[in-house]
Amino acid sequence: MRIQTIRLLSGLVWKNKLKSSSTPWLIGIFNVMLFVALFSGYRHMSEQQQLVSENSREVRQQWIDNPDKHPHRMAHYGYVAFRQKFPLSFFDFGMDRYVGNVVFLEAHRQNTVNFSEASLSNGLLRLGEVSAGMILQLLLPLLIFFWGFDLIAREREEGMLRLLLTQGVSWPELIIGKSLGLFYLSLSIFLPAAVIGLILLSLNSLTGVAPQVFMSFLALTGSYLLYLLVLSLLAVFISARSTSSRAALIQLIGCWLFFTLMLPKVSQLVGQQLFPAPSKIEFDTAVEEELIRQGDSHNPDDPHYQALKDSLLAAYGVDATQQLPFNYSGYVMREGERLSAETYRQHQERLVDIYHKQQNVVRLTALFNPYMAVKNMSMAFAGTDYTSFHDFEDQAEYYRYELAQTMNELQIEHIGNQVQSSADKNAIISRKHWEAFPDFQHRFLSFGQMLQKELVSLMALLLWLCGLLTLIFSVKYSVN
Amino acid sequence: MNRYPLLIKNFVRSRGLITGLLLLFISGLVSLHTGKYFLDRNEEVITKTSHYQQENIDRYVKYHPDEMGLLLYYIRFGLVHTTPALSGLAIGQRDINPSLVSVTIRNLEEQKYATDLMNPMYQLLGNMDFSFVLFYFFPLIIIAFGYNLVSEEKEGGTWRLVLSQTPRPLQMLYVKMGVRYISVLSVLLLLLVIAKFYLQIPVDAAFAIYCLLAVLYISFWFCLVWLVVSFHRSSSRNALILLTAWVLLCMLLPAGLHALVVQWYPAPEAYATVLESRDGYHRQWDRPKEPTIDKFQQRYPQFSSFRHPDGEDFSWLWYYAMQQMGDEQAATAAKLLKEKLRQRAAFSRVAGWFVPTIHTQLTMNALSRSDLLSQVDFLEALEKFHEDKRLYFYPKIFTEAAVSDENWNDFTLEYHAQENRTGWLEALLPLLLAGIICMGWAKWNWESMPLARKL
After folding, report:
1. Interface residue B345 vs chain A (CB under 8 A)
2. pLDDT at A107 over 50
3. CB-based contact (8 Å) between B92 and chain A?
């Protein structure tokens, strides 16, 4: 391996490609597409961020503006949590359009996160979206294959190959040199986009509260560079192994189709069938049934709550709940909330576990499919993957639980035991308690949390790189 | 004429072409399996829900046998958005919007938009339904079959031979293309026949239009290939042009249009419905009861005779009037939201007339009632369903009718089925026109450029 030779060969690729009239055009078109995608993605993201901030402020104001009242009414008044967009999400939309944005948080009940953008759109969304991520993951490979398919095969067809090899160039030098040339070409498309992306990222108002975006950006850039390098090596390697440039092109396009269109969809079907997930109604019914088994606070004859009552009466040495030194119905509700939240959490964990298993089927295909690897990493670092969404769900549920229990505590502490209804004048507490309860703040994942889930994908890309390099050095090539 | 059987034999013997057809057929079968899985799962959810609904009603009737108002706080009634078997071929938005929604007679806005539990990774990757295979794979195979129709002969040096041997070389190209067309068409028709029986699709207008649309769609791609080869370019140039057309028509234009639609018709009303309905209902707790009840009775004069008992803190009349206020306050936002969704659908449809691929996708979803308009239609049906349930139970709640007088077994799932809204002409015309334009242009090319022209 001589660096000099490799540099020479890669330079030649540049020179030869730029001679063709279509190359500057293609580079130009891709750059324009990326700029448009980045700007429109950024604009949409900022608008959504603003919408979320405005609505969150309104929710907070409404909450504080509530008059003095019974705390349980506030628990039912509840809160509305909005999912905020990670400042890097304009780079790769990932699952962002498919997951909900807003959830109503109230006592006793876990609502779904609703209004995903997909639920408000027609079928066109399903044909894909133009984001920088999509162009880099899906279309740029096609261009790399188009540029790379004849890099060696054509020289073979034109008889130049023998000449090169007799001049003392080794096969690995030839392939790596040409691959690097191809890789540099692809950088003419990727690097401007990365720079624009970085500028837009630093302009975003939320970047200040989430300094981890810069680490994410670095990792995102790294993933794409690795991906482009793997594709360049793959293109030139196949070109070197094919008998004709036409065969190389067909093989490369076949690879592209298989990687990007076939495998992801087939693997999702396999995952779904291997690990069937319950529907909403099954999930809700299972939760409801388990709650009833544990104790139904709505059923007057329920043994669990009967036992609770008896033990309380015994402990305080009184005959009736009205004589207890604290608000009994608040106490029961706190117990009910604890039980139902716990049960819900267990079922939710089981569901998420199934989703993770399903996703792992897709994630494992990254070992055979560099496209899936980069897609997963890109989504993760852009904060638009399932982990990010699920983290929001968790934060919302945690907040909901805190809200309900805080209101129950207030009731236990401040509300008399004699009151019959929440409309009773004695059952009202000051509104200053509402303000004392903190606002909901959607916190983004840390960089470590993002990276953790996608180590498999990173390994897959590195394996591809090592595998290809091993192949390049070990395989026998023919000059004809 | 006796030369043509040779062309056919040549075609059949060519390994690449048979592989291509086989690939189409196998991915077609996988897609039918996807559709079947989707339909079965849907059916299963409906069966289970029907069972759970009955269980749920029985349980609460047992717990609250003498308070109608309290009972109806709990029990849920399901409305099914009927899934035609055809949606197994074009799943569209049906994996995002639930095909069954269960609601209580309380505030509807808080229940209307509830989503089903779905792994978002699957929604992102999408379904490999038949429409997907038709949309993406068929064109690619058609491109692979036809891009070098003339140029392969020129590049292989046989074109001169053809010209000297055949009196009408264009005729030979027609036959060559025709053989490819018929072979791809046969695979398509075979898959549709299998689909008909495997998914048990009833033969109605929607299915007939779907099939014709599928045939016209692949015909359009053949016309496009025919147009591109009529320019007498080299094989690699043709391949590049056709692949670019494919990326443009199947990926970039639909995605670009979607981005435009979202930009031009933003829907902030979605969030507003949540905030308004919550505020509209919960605020009533802290307000005097009379205005709430007055508003309710203005809306429903038939219940004017009912009164909130004096001095009482609570009555079901007041409670359900409060619930109603949530919907009333969100009504404007909800109406605007539906309006926005309609505008989105209408704009995409018009844009689709100019882009055959977009038109095909949208029309197929419309035919299988898995498009956005069907969803809006279902939301309206749900509103009516909910209103009917309210109007049925309100008098019983307010008069404190006996729970035992009601036959609770009658409350089974109800179904909302939609008629096919898509006409023959609007479905087929855009594709027909696009095909004719390609063919006309190609004809002009063949006539104006001598066939003997060199590369």
Report:
1. yes
2. yes
3. yes
Question: Alpha-carbon distance A74 to A107, whole Å?
Answer: 9
Chain B interface includes A349 (CB < 8 A): no
Contact by Cβ (8 Å): A128, B255: yes
> Which one of A53, A64, A127, A269 would you mutate to disrupt binding with B, by most B Cβ within 10 Å of its Cβ?
A127
Q: Work out the pLDDT band at A251, boundaries 50, 70, 90.
A: confident
B329-339 as b/e: b if 16+ CB within 10 A: bbbebbebbbe
Cβ-contact A395, A439 below 8 angstroms: no
**Residues A268, B345: C-beta atoms closer than 8 Å:** no
Among A114, A118, A127, the residue with its CB nearest the CB of B114 is A114
Segment 407-446 of chain B within 8 Å of chain A by CB: none
Q: What is the pLDDT at residue B1?
A: 46
- Give the pLDDT confidence score for residue B13 in this predicted structure: 67
pLDDT tens across A159-214, in order? 888 888 888 888 999 999 999 999 999 999 999 999 999 999 999 989 888 888 99
What is this model's ipTM?
A: 0.86
Low-confidence ranges of chain B (pLDDT < 70): 1-8, 11-13, 451-455
B305 touches chain A (CB under 8 A): no
Q: Which two tokens stand for residue A457?
A: 């994908």
Q: A residues 232-271 near B, CB within 8 Å?
A: 246, 249-250, 253, 257, 261-262, 264-269, 271
Which residue among B41, B127, B279 sits closest to A62, beta carbon to beta carbon? B279
Chain B residues with CB-CB distance to A119 below 8 A: 93, 96-97, 113, 115, 375
Do A355 and B132 make contact, defined as CB atoms within 8 angstroms? no
Residues on chain A touching B34 (C-beta within 8 angstroms) = 269
Which of A138-152, A315-329, A400-414, B185-199 shows the lowest per-residue confidence on average (mean pLDDT)?
A315-329
Note the pTM of the prediction, 2 decimals. 0.90
Summarised one tens digit per residue, pLDDT across range A277-332 is 988 888 988 888 888 887 766 565 677 888 888 888 888 888 888 888 888 888 88
Cβ contact (<8 Å) for A421 and B313? yes
Give the tokens for residue A217.
């950006």
Q: Give the pLDDT confidence score for residue B3 in this predicted structure.
A: 58
What integer is the mean pLDDT of A210-231?
94
pLDDT of residue B7: 67
Taking CB atoms and an 8 Å limit, are B93 and A118 in contact across chains?
Answer: yes
Interface residue A69 vs chain B (CB under 8 A): yes
Residues of chain B positioned with their CB less than 8 A from the CB of A122 = 93, 261, 344-345, 348, 362, 365, 371-372
User: pLDDT (tens digit, 9 = 90+) per residue, A46-90?
Assistant: 999 999 999 999 999 999 999 898 899 899 999 999 999 999 999
